[in-house]
Amino acid sequence: MKHIIFGGDGFVGRYLAPRLLADGHEVVVADIVKSDLPHYRDARFVHTDVTDPASIRALGIGAEDMVYNLSAKMLSPIQVRAKRHDFFFPVNYHGTENILKAMDEAGAKSLVHFTTDMVYGHTYTWPQTEDHPCAPLGEYGMSKLRTEELAVEWRRRGMNISLFRPRLIIGPGRLGILSKLFKLIDSNLPVPMIGSGRNPYQFISVFDCASAAHAAFKAGVPNDVYNLGSLNPPPVRKLLGDLVKHAGSRSILLPTPAWAVKRVLDMLDLINMPLMDPEQYLIADEMCVLDVSKGERALGWVPQHRDEDMLIAAYSEYRKKIGGGAEAHVGQSKAA
Is the CB of residue 277 less than 8 Å from the CB of residue 75? Predict the structure, then answer.
């Protein structure tokens, strides 16, 4: 049995591959890029474009192989409205479809696939369980929901597919929209919040995502869907306030009327000058908290990382990158 990780050079894959290798499995990373990662001493890399069916077939998937699909186009960099469908769907939807068809041709039946919590759209009940209504607010969430519909279809044909819906994944190797927040804090500028900041904000650690994928394999790849998020997420105001304090910044947190900010962001989006994707700002003041207890009951998976620690760790990585190595707090020189 091989463990084939599509998108395995990316964010979650670079932490999943070492886990599988440590268990003694043969690991194949299928991706369009190859980074300088230590696990390539033991894992095999195969250049693979999921939008090209022939490229996937060339991998030589076997009937007994375990497949993970982590390939995806994300919300960063922000796309203008007219380009969103063509940006997300070729990889997120058609790429997944190509993987499933190649698995079927090979007789492979086990897939772990990551979608997103943005399949839910607006919050109707919280905490959100996996049976919360799905009504995505944009092309990213819709492209992921369509892959879940593919999974339902292929399960009927005999495949075992475990689906994961993560909140915003953070950890070493990805900053995304957080870099804008960190720049404000470094510049001692006000940090605007959409709304009062009393609602919680929930992350999920990349390490916890990798452990969830591993847990699904060990549990026999259940035909089900699982939320991925932290436990007990704090209010936005506390989360950001702790970060400002850690950074030694003079930034203040600035509550705003959510309805007014959203209309301004809507207008900027309409004239093709988006500051955020609508799927991000339209739910920014809502109670978007995922219930992750199903993963514990079915897979024995429990998230280990706190939101506060994750955000501070991401900021520390940001500071190291711009500071040339060691973390420097706001106001310190690079040589400090």
Answer: yes
